[in-house]
Amino acid sequence: MTGKPIPEEVVQIASDIKNMRIRGAGRIARAGALALRIAAEKYTGQNLDDFKEYIRIVADYVVKTRPTAVSLPNAVSYVVSPLLRADSIRDVEEAKRMIIENAEKFMDYSERAVERIAEIGSRLLRDGDTVLTHCNSQVVVSVIKAAVKQGKSVEVIATETRPLFQGHITIKMLLDAGVDAVTLVPDSAVRSVIKDVDKVIVGADTVTANGAVVNKVGTSLIALIARERGIDFYVATETYKFSPYTVWGELVVIEERTPTEVLPEDVIAKNPYLKVFNPSFDVTPPYLVTAIITEIGLIPPQASLLVLEELYGRGAIHDTIQTVEEE
Ligand SMILES: O=C(COP(=O)(O)O)[C@H](O)[C@H](O)COP(=O)(O)O
Asked: Which Pfam families match (predicted)?
């Protein structure tokens, strides 16, 4: 067992993910890859087995920060699995290089994927469209920005996204980018404004093998409202948010956050019989999703398993599950 401590910078990244100073599934994934790169750079020993053990411990530590977005374990697995499986690596220097290169490749891929989704997604938007979005998704904001950059006039309705108000981040990002037709509404006003909406676009934390989409709590209600009105409901997401683990029946853990995000601590303390339930995400079933906009094109949600097979191959998906079980 390695005696090497987890570097301070990695501890800081993990704490930032946990406390949501780093948030949003894409950013979390890139932060996870960065943490591994830093861990590899900081390692000082010469024993290859010890280095592998150390990387395994760091990987596990980073993955445990937030449970729902599969982008995090997928990113971590992309960076570390080739090393843990390889028997051709000769020494620590080579192993370090492998981790650093994989981390950089992932971060680079992730950024290019967002750009590609913006390009594809923006084609779906027509001049004069009003788009409703929920929470704060970097990918969705990029789609809207790309459409506006093409000269299309796009109005945006953003939900506040209680209890943590990620909608405020969304409107700031849009206004800073020069998208000026932006309206902020309380989450509960979605059914009141849906008559003005042409398309709903949200991000994703996880897409399951059967095409269900896990995203910020409230997303599934918006999907239902969109369906009631016959409005297209799109999900914009990189393919590393598709979960290979769900192929074999593993359920997505929905993060439950502290009640103090919903009610002040003193009110909770004064009312010992009061319960507060604060789930951070919910599940939108595939039948409510028009299409998933990914960097490899538009995917009907029902084709999610095919995407996973294309990405990992059947055998590889099985290996991934085994690696996770072993850990
Ligand atoms: O649900 C959230 C964020 O939740 P939280 O604020 O709890 O992290 C976002 O819609 C997805 O993560 C996609 O974001 P992106 O497109 O930026 O990856």
From this structure: IF-2B (PF01008)
